[in-house]
Amino acid sequence: MSSLRFSITSREGMARAGTLGTPHGEIQTPAFVPVGTKAGVKGILPSILESLGAQVVLANTYHLYLQPGEQIVKDAGGLGTFMDWKGPTMTDSGGFQVFSLGAAFGRTITKIAKGEELPRDQGMAVYDQEVQSQHGQLAVIDDQGVTFTSHHDGSLHRFTPERSIEIQHALGADMFFAFDECTAPTEPYEYQKEAMERTHRWALRSIKAHRQNIEASRTQAIFGIVQGGRHTDLRKESAKEIASLGFDGIGIGGSFSKEDMRGALQAAIPELPDELPRHFLGIGEPGDVLTGIAEGMDLFDCVAATRLGRHGTIYTKRGPITLTNEKHRTEFMPLDPETLVPGTEGFTRAYVSHQLRSHELLGQIIASMHNLGFIIQLVDGAREAIHEGRFATYREDFIRNYYGTV
RNA sequence: GCGUCGGUGGUAGAGUGGUCAAUUACACGACACUGUAAAUGUCGCGGCUUCGGCCUACGAAGGUUCGAAUCCUUCCCGGCGCA
Known about the structure:
Blueprint: E1 5-12, E2 15-22, E3 25-29, E4 31-34, H1 46-52, E5 57-60, H2 61-66, H3 70-76, H4 79-83, E6 89-92, H5 95-103, E7 112-113, H6 132-135, E8 139-141, E9 146-149, E10 156-159, H7 161-171, E11 175-177, H8 189-211, H9 214-219, E12 221-226, H10 232-243, E13 249-252, E14 256-257, H11 261-268, E15 278-280, H12 286-295, E16 299-302, H13 304-310, E17 313-314, E18 321-322, H14 349-357, H15 361-387, H16 391-403
Parallel strand pairs: 4-16, 5-6, 6-11, 7-14, 11-12, 12-13, 13-15, 15-16
Antiparallel strand pairs: 1-2, 2-3, 8-9, 9-10, 17-18
Helix pairs in contact: 3-7, 7-8, 8-10, 10-11, 11-12, 12-15, 12-16, 13-15, 14-15, 15-16
The structure holds one RNA strand of 83 nucleotides.
């Protein structure tokens, strides 16, 4: 039935390592998935991606639907051919834009809440398009779907689960996601529950729409998405529900507070079928990825590596550093002496700092390459460690060095 | 030499009697960034401060005025024109 062949070959605690077969090749899991929202990883050529060890790329339905339009991608031969990436591909459903263009639009809230950020007093869905402008959002949710105002030209567009799946069929990725509602971490329990139940109804509609397309079902796999915010009871309930619908894989999405991420995973994962691949949507930072692996997640995507790089921050084994800071201007040392990334080994902090400060593309490219290579190597190392039964130590060592604590 | 226009914070460049420690941009300093509205955004950017202010500043020195970056005089410096 599924176009995927997933087999787990090693385990350590909840962590697992294996291979995920797709129509475009095998993925060794756990794996980090670079994000190429608009069918391109910002600043990184596909050939470079390959040299960095990337195995699969994730693009976005909302962005490609708006530009250039899914038909062009389809006519090109699908996402992979269009962008000249020969390996496996994934697409996100546009569910994240429900959040980023909705509740998060024009505000400082992000997917991950900090510390003790309190929930809002109330957070009901907005049902009336006419009040959209009053809400200052580009996305407005109703029970049937989401109405978007294009961030390009202000035109109005509508996504339903069926429409998202239709677009994702056209994009033709090996794996794609059900249309969901990604909530803000600041939403209160009642709203998280309401949104989760809506996501469940949309999950059912998404998988129905997919299975109705026999051809697509043969070559593309659909992942359902677990929601429920930071609440363990909702996470558990959501995992149970999503697991029961017959998806080819499971995504864990939505928002957390930093502290509750692990708890949310621990609540959800026992309810998930062991034999399905699990994707942790939008995660994350090095430490969070290792947490996910420890709890049994298989795939991770995150924009942080490339975005941070473009903005001047690079990962090092001793924690992230802001290369544009004055103190790095004269540091004639490798970006991270403990991490050699192919293609960037010869560059010094001083050089890349200069490139970044002078707004040269090369600075952004090198920093993005470095970060992508760093996080891919981190996950590759975790996989090897699981195979060799030393993941716990591997993780502890990394956390101690990176964050300075265990 | 005469005439004329101009000299503002690191730079460019607003302001042209009080609301000016001075718009804005860049530079500079720091912070943020987790399914990419993101080569982005936020804050700071004369000194001191008990955070209410105080001091020093708009080429220099005088002056007018309750009050001057803004008006007047002289000087210094620069552009242009005429000798």
